[in-house]
Design a protein that fits this description.
It is found in: Cell membrane. One of its GO terms (biological process) is cobalamin biosynthetic process. It catalyses: alpha-ribazole + adenosylcob(III)inamide-GDP = adenosylcob(III)alamin + GMP + H(+); alpha-ribazole 5'-phosphate + adenosylcob(III)inamide-GDP = adenosylcob(III)alamin 5'-phosphate + GMP + H(+). Its main location: membrane. The chain is mainly α and 262 residues long. The chain has one domain. 75% of the residues lie in helices and 0% in strands. The chain contains 12 helices and no strands. The chain is globular, with a radius of gyration of 18 Å. The N and C termini lie far apart (42 Å).
């Protein structure tokens, strides 16, 4: 049990600014094993973002509250996933070879495709959250929390289904360049199932929206898998962050779109 707590803290440290106990320690293989807790880390980020959104909506218009909530989540994660999105857009935006795409994604400079992708994704997320908050504040808070949690399972799936596309020996996080086993994938997906069941139990009227978010998230995950397999023959760390962002915003969009009918 103590080892499982240690794995969670390692995942939390890797993806956020949250300080962890000094006794946690670190072994490279632990980061690989900690993938099972990526959705749980998403729950921490989602709770933080939802709390800021709830408090801000008490004082400010929904548009301002949403920007503050997004800023809070980006601060907590250090823009880790957004950086991956920008690099992926730069690498895959043009009609370049696999080798050139991998080279571009290693470049820390932000290109035009990356800037456009980041701007459009953040703008779409903000507009979607404002729409949800205007329609139903409770739904906005719930969907935001769930989307943060569930979208962190998408990279775990990619790490299970695809090989690493770059040079594993020189990867920024070498343990994440190793394919994930069934135990890690099962626990990550199990967390999503439990969170989905809790949402359905607490707010049964939202079940159609939840199902739409699940289908959309799964569809976008498989789309990203197909795209990465075709263009790169696998995934890189940047692609994992990009996939998380795509699935998160897609799930929120599904809730907003279906909310007009249910």
């Amino acid at each position: 049990m103590l080892h499982q707590v240690r794995l969670f803290f390692i995942a939390l440290q890797f993806f956020t600014r949250v300080p962890i106990p000094g006794w946690t320690g670190f072994q490279p293989e632990w980061l690989h094993q900690s993938a099972r807790y990526f959705p749980l880390v998403g729950a921490v980020v989602g709770l933080w973002s939802a709390a800021v959104l709830w408090l801000a909506m008490l004082v400010f218009p929904n548009s301002v509250a949403v920007v503050l909530a997004m800023a809070a989540s980006i601060w907590l994660t250090g823009g880790f996933h957004e950086d991956g999105l920008a690099d992926t857009c730069d690498g895959l935006g043009g009609a370049v070879s696999r080798e050139r795409a991998l080279e571009i994604m290693k470049d820390s400079r932000l290109g035009s495709y990356g800037a456009l992708g980041l701007f459009l994704m953040l703008g779409l997320k903000a507009a979607t959250l404002v729409g949800l908050a205007d329609a139903d504040p409770t739904l906005a808070l719930t969907a935001l929390l769930w989307a943060h949690l569930a979208s962190r399972a998408a990279p775990v799936w990619l790490m299970h289904a695809l090989p690493y596309a770059g040079d594993a020996a020189h990867a920024k996080a070498k343990p994440l360049a190793t394919q994930i086993g069934g135990a890690e994938l099962g626990m990550a997906m199990g967390t999503v199932v439990l969170a989905s069941g809790l949402w359905a139990w607490l707010l049964p009227d939202d079940i159609p929206l939840l199902l739409g978010a699940i289908v959309t998230g799964a569809g976008l995950t498989f789309f990203m898998q197909s795209l990465l397999e075709r263009r790169l023959g696998g995934y890189t760390g940047d692609n994992l962050g990009a996939t998380q962002q795509v699935v998160e915003v897609g799930a929120l969009l599904a809730c907003l779109g279906l909310g007009a009918y249910f």
